[in-house]
Amino acid sequence: MLPTTATASAPPPPPAAGAGTGASASSPGEPHDALLLALGHMRLRDLLACARACRGLRDAVAGDPLLWRRLTVGPPLSHRITDEALLALTDRAGGRLRSLHLLGCPRVSDDGLLRVVQRNPDVTELFVPRCSGLTADGLVKIIQFLHERKGNLSHVRLHGICKMTNHHLDVIKSLICRSSQQDAQALYYSHRVHEVLNTDDSRPIDVDVCPLCRNVRLVFDCTRKDCREVKDSWTRCRGCFFCVARCETCGRCIDLEELGETGLACSDFLCMDCWLKLPKCCTCNRPYCERHSNLKEKLSPSGQFTCQECTAYATSLESLGNGY
User: Fold this and answer.
1) In this entry, which stretches build a coiled coil (predicted)?
2) Are the beta carbons of 153 and 181 closer than 8 angstroms?
3) Continuous H helices in 22-165
4) I need a labelling partner for 152 at 20 to 30 A (CA). Which of 88, 181, 306, 310 fits?
């Protein structure tokens, strides 16, 4: 409601003396100072979009090297970024790039990444998970260059790099900044860690040698208390995703007997404890894990549902019956 001392047709009060003339005020047509402060908190996609909004924002984005010291290229730009585009973006840091996260960028090559680090030898974080255009030999060469120039590289992410061997991993470990070397930290399984390019943990290197298959992959520890306390069990169930089946919800190991009793309507695995807590398909008595719960069909008010496989089977039977 309007104040009792004002009317709808009354003009606004005149500005106070000196108002709008301070250094922080924006000129007409120029971006507000608050928007300029927000640029440092934007993702790459939003930052590039702002640069196309007006000349003032374009100059602000292109002219501030501090905005580009930490560069993260993730979906949906991951599959579009090329060597030339990456070099153009990193050059905006003016040679002061500190952190480069390339999350699943298949068009970035060894030569392209090497050119970037040659112009930015102060890089301390290099995350390249699932960059299929990179090779283990090329990454060793890149990390060797950074070690010889500054020696400040402290964190790398190599999950999904093909043909990474124990020798490559040993060389990379020897080149990482010694101040970052820490005691081995446990890594527990979750779909986000395994599939969605995890970058949150503080370990210097994300991959390790799987004690079961001896391949260089993400190696998970078990969340089961018995496995953590009993040394032999801990060694037996510590391994990569391909060697040890793990519960999608709690991350504990699942033995073969338990695996046969906890069938799901989706492709993931659950332990018995987590399996019992979930609602089941009213036809086949199989649940969906929480990640695939959106696939439920024919939901009733009481929460009963039918899985997609049972629905498809019922539809096919109905079609066959109508054919006669």
Assistant:
1) none
2) no
3) 33-38, 44-51, 55-62, 83-91, 110-119, 136-149
4) 88
